[in-house]
Amino acid sequence: MYGAEQFGPAKMALSIEQAATQAGYDVIFSHIANTHQALQTAIQNLSGWRVDGILMIAPVAGMTYHEIRDLAPQTPIVQIDGLRDPSIPSVVSDDAAGTQFVIDHLRELGHSHFVEFSGPQSWFSAQVRHRAMQDVEVVASIECDWTAASAYQATCRLPKNGYTAIVAANDQMALGVLLALQERGIRVPQDVSVVGFDDIPEAPYYLPPLTTVRQEFNEMGVVGIEYLLQLVEDPETLIQQHRIMPKLIVRQSSSGV
After folding, report:
1. Are 57 and 148 within one domain?
2. 154 and 178 in contact (C-beta within 8 Å)?
3. Which strands, in side-by-side order, build the sheet including 165-168?
4. Which of 11, 74, 88, 107 could join 217 via S-S bond, C-beta 3.0 to 4.6 A?
5. pLDDT tens across 150-161, in order?
6. Can you give the residue range of the structural domain that contains 78?
7. Would strands 247-249 and 212-214 be described as parallel, antiparallel, or unpaired?
């Protein structure tokens, strides 16, 4: 898996372990750097251990699925949160739908001028959310690195007006946005609405509580294990990409203009 320090991959890993244990399987975790050599070594090691299947949390662009298949041609492989491609056995969150939920919510509140703080564009989910934001009037689009610090610094560089809503690609970044706005005397949500993504456990306790998109990370892990075991038990199982629908959670950080 990659990105274990991030909330989403960590939650998925825990649900994967629990679901696999309930199904009578042991799990070997391998946290790898995002390099071809590291991934190649990890796949070769797992193949040497004769595992029944490989479930990859692969949120960052790197080695293609077909290159990975060539390293372990006899082992069923399922990717989670990888490339959005229906020809790859995989499980993903519908990030485009989640972003559209945010856009529709803010438009219904009267917002028309947005600032976007995207995630790093090497991440598949960040790419999808960024593309989905192209349908709105984006005053500024700034690539950040998922951290509160990166979004805080980016917010400090923004003008004080010209926009009424900020869309952050995750809740950690939204936290940095909220602090920077407060320090600059910009009220949330009276002056600017702020929306995040993920619905981390702390989101209801932000000041103000954060409107965000809840991703079903536990469900993604469980569906990933179930799909992998289907492929293990029946190699003729249909190859598909399972899409998990997120949910908009409305709290006090967004309001009408």
Report:
1. no
2. no
3. 137-143, 113-118, 165-168, 193-195
4. 11
5. 999 999 999 999
6. 7-93+216-246
7. antiparallel
